[in-house]
C-alpha cells in the first residue's frame, strides 16, 4: 500500500536510504534465483541490453564505462561483452557480490569490477576517476529524490568528450490503469511515496523487508536536471516497447520486449537519451 511522503517518508536522507538499501539487499537472493533474471541464461551468453542500446551508444570496445545503480550487474557485464572496460556501482553489498561472481563465471573479471557505494557518493568511492561513458539503466531514477544532485554526480564522473547514456521506463506509463487506456494518476505527483509490498517484481518467495521509498520524475525534470549541470542532450528517443508486462494487454514479441497489440492506442513505454558536455 502506498502512502504520501508527508506521512511516512523519513525526514532524514539516511532514513529513506537505509530503508531502500535493506529492501534491495533482501531482493538480491530472490532475483538471483528468479526466472526473470535468468542468471543461467546470462552465464550461457545472453545479453540483457535492449537492441536499440548498442545502436544508440555506438561502439564501446576499449572504452571505460561506469554503470550507476547496477544491481547484480548483468547490464554492466553485457557492455563488457561488447568490449568495454566496465565498473558497476551499487549500494547493495549482496548485489555487488553477485555481480563480482558473474564476472568471474563468464571470464570477464579482467574487464569488470564492482564497487559498493551509494550513487551520491560515487565520486569519492571511485577516487575521482572519470569515464568515457556513464550509463544508467531501467528502473534507477525512481529511487532518487533529487535528480539535479544525481545529474551533478554523473556529470562529474565523465571524462573529456565522455557521454551520459540513460535508458528508463517512461513516466507517462505511471498515469495509466492496468489496461493502459485510462488516466488514473497525476503525472505531476513527484513527492516520495512509501510502498509496503510483500513481493518484488520477479517470481519468487516473499520478502522480509518490504518497505521502500520511491519518487516519480517527469520527463521534463530529467532533461532540466541535465541542463542545469551543463550537459547537452544529443537525443531523446521514446520507445513503444518495454521490458516486462507493464499492462495486462501487452504482448511479448520475438525480441522479448512487450508492446500493445495491433489496434490498441500506443503510449511511450521507455525512453533513452544521450547527453554530453558542449
CATH architecture: 3-Layer(aba) Sandwich
How far is the N terminus from the C terminus? 44 Å
The number of strands is 12
Oligomer: single chain
pLDDT averaged over residues = 93
The radius of gyration computed from the alpha-carbon positions, rounded to a whole number of angstroms, is 18 Å
Structurally, the number of domains stands at 1
Classified by CATH, the class is Alpha Beta
Order of helices and strands: EHHHHEHEHEHEHEEEHEEEE
Task: Note the main sheet.
Answer: 7 strands, mixed
Could you tell me the CATH topology label. Answer: Rossmann fold
CATH-level-4 superfamily name = Vaccinia Virus protein VP39
Write a structural description.
The protein has helices at about 5-10, 15-30, 40-45, 50-55, 75-80, 95-105, 120-125, 145-155, 220-230, and strands at about 1-5, 65-70, 85-90, 110-115, 130-135, 160-170, 195, 210-215, 230-240, 250, 260, 270-275. It is an alpha/beta fold. The strands form 3 sheets. Strands 4-3-2-5-6-12-9 form a 7-stranded mixed sheet, with helices on both faces. A 3-stranded antiparallel sheet has the order 1-7-8. The chain has a two-stranded antiparallel ribbon with strand order 10-11. Helix 8 (about 145-155) crosses helix 9 (about 220-230). The N and C termini lie far apart (about 45 Å). One of its GO terms (molecular function) is methyltransferase activity. Keywords: Methyltransferase, Transferase. Pfam families: Methyltransf_25 (PF13649).
